[in-house]
Amino acid sequence: MSQGKNRASWRIGFAYAGIIIGAGFSTGQEVLQFFSSHGMISIAGIILAALILMFVGRQAAKLGFRLDADSHETPLRVLFGKKLGLVIDYVLISFYTESQLL
Q1: Is the distance from CB of 88 to CB of 76 less than 8 angstroms?
Q2: What is the DSSP letter of 70?
């Protein structure tokens, strides 16, 4: 792998982590309040949540790569069709906008 591709991979990885952690899934305080209130079983919940996020993120990245997508809209249309994909796009936008206002 060339130096440029390696650097781009790291940027994409950090951007994904920033979106998941910073824009909606959780902050450190939310993880502490939600998961730790359930005792030792919460460790299994944290691991399960991390595995699900890794799997879904990887699948989304693979689909976007295969489709040579320029934005998130192309995979949404392929997965959900034109009309439902548009609805899901608006839902995603509203969640993102809401997280930016908080």
Answers
A1: yes
A2: S
Provide CB contacts within 8 A for 76, sequence distance 6+. Answer: 85, 88, 89
The answer to whether residues 77 and 84 touch, using CB atoms and an 8 Å cutoff, is: no
**pTM beyond 0.85:** no
The 10s digit of each residue's pLDDT in 31-74 is: 667 777 788 888 888 788 888 878 888 888 888 889 888 888 88
Q: How far apart are CA 87 and CA 82, in angstroms?
A: 9
**How many whole angstroms from its chain centre is CA 50?**
11
Helices (H), the chain: 3-22, 28-35, 41-66, 73-80, 82-101
How many other CB atoms are found less than 10 A from the CB of residue 76? Answer: 21
The closest of 74, 78, 82, 75 to 60, measured between CA atoms, is 75
| Half-sphere exposure of residue 38: CA atoms within 13 angstroms, side-chain side | 9
